[in-house]
């Protein structure tokens, strides 16, 4: 970086733009679960719980398609373009949901929306990490990923205020308004410095480094080290580098953690309001539990990232997943209102909070030349869990199984995720950086 060119913007500015972008994923996470009670009552649709779960899974199938394609595109065309395309696609998909005239049309619209969302999180996490100071990568990633539960909180609040009086279509219409942030992204969202260097666009990288107080020499050294890695992997980048012996096992373990975490997150968010209604709570109070869970996710994300920068992400993720599992076991016992609220809060902390921390762990673990692909691949494979989550919840809810299994079905994968995290190799770039930051 040229010392004569003082920085004109903080890297936190990039983080906040990524925060706004990731919020669309959080909004979409909650909107379907919040509207299921009304969709089940929609005149002429005759939706069963199993059919509603299938529509929820179509969204996640679209997400899986988008994620698997978005990761390599992010590494090929850059983070900035893909993030803007994802926001535009999401807004159009939300509009289609708002005007859907049948369950089949809603399912197709949800699938289309999911494809657009696939481009949002991998690029946002990668860009955040690439603009973050080394000793604060987990914290900056967590701040950006807090957009995920904050978007969910916004949706829950809107649902509480409008769902009973205005119906379900308005909530999807609000999602379509997200297109209004595109002009802000067009003028102010920068491209990744690491990506520009990797593509030989050194002058552009130097300009951005000066603007955001990034040590360009340090980034260049990292890129040189990553090039040596690619030479060992036959010049690979993206998916080819990910599937090389150096990263293959770690990628599979991260994907399994994402699978378990997404199964819990999407299953709970799709069915928690209906589970609470089945337990005797009114629609309004059931939506309040959804809001409490998002608040738990926000706290878990921020406190967990603060701990991860000091202790390492593995030492934080394991207990967080276990907190989620224990909270679900408490919910299965129908406790009194105070313990019920605490358990819902803990479920949010241990499910959504854990998943978002895992995104930061993945982003810091892999080099810039395959970072977007790594996040997209792990999430894309993990989205199989998010597809199964609403389906499992609908099947359990519609079966004759004891009500405890409504929560056991999600507590078990949370425990499995905690175990798998312990198996991720320790010789990871993010943990080396953590040790170096701690020693300085």
UniProtKB/TrEMBL annotation:
InterPro entries attached to this UniProt entry: MFS_dom (IPR020846), MFS_sugar_transport-like (IPR005828), MFS_trans_sf (IPR036259), Sugar_transporter_CS (IPR005829)
An example of a Gene Ontology cellular component annotation for this protein is:
plasma membrane
Q: Which Gene3D superfamilies match?
A: MFS general substrate transporter like domains
User: Where is the protein found, in the record's own terms?
Assistant: Membrane
Q: Which residues cross the membrane?
A: 50-70, 82-101, 107-127, 139-164, 170-189, 250-268, 280-304, 316-332, 338-362, 374-393, 405-424
Membrane-topology descriptor: Multi-pass membrane protein
Mind telling me which SUPFAM superfamilies this protein's record contains?
MFS general substrate transporter
Location of the Major facilitator superfamily (MFS) profile domain: 14-429
Q: Which domain of life is it from?
A: Bacteria
Q: What is its main location?
A: membrane
Q: Name one GO molecular function term.
A: carboxylic acid transmembrane transporter activity
| Keywords carried by this UniProt record | Membrane, Transmembrane, Transmembrane helix
Q: What is this protein called?
A: Major facilitator transporter
Phylogenetic placement of the source organism: Bacteria, Pseudomonadati, Pseudomonadota, Betaproteobacteria, Burkholderiales
